[in-house]
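Mods, move this if it's the wrong board.
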Amino acid sequence: MNLRGQSVEFTVRDIAYPEPGAVLMRLHGDDVLNGKVIDVSQGPTETHVVVQVKGLEQPVVVPIDRVRR
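Not the wrong board. Structure tokens:
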């Protein structure tokens, strides 16, 4: 079967190279997400917020100086 030049579909998790996370960063690294702050974590040098984003199973942690209201 010759697939060269054919359009195909696959999931991001099936990518063998480069790392799927690198692909997502390249395609969507500048996308803006929004969510609700559910906690604040004060570290010795930096403060982070814990944000629940609709559509994600677990919250994300973001440096507080990188969030916008």
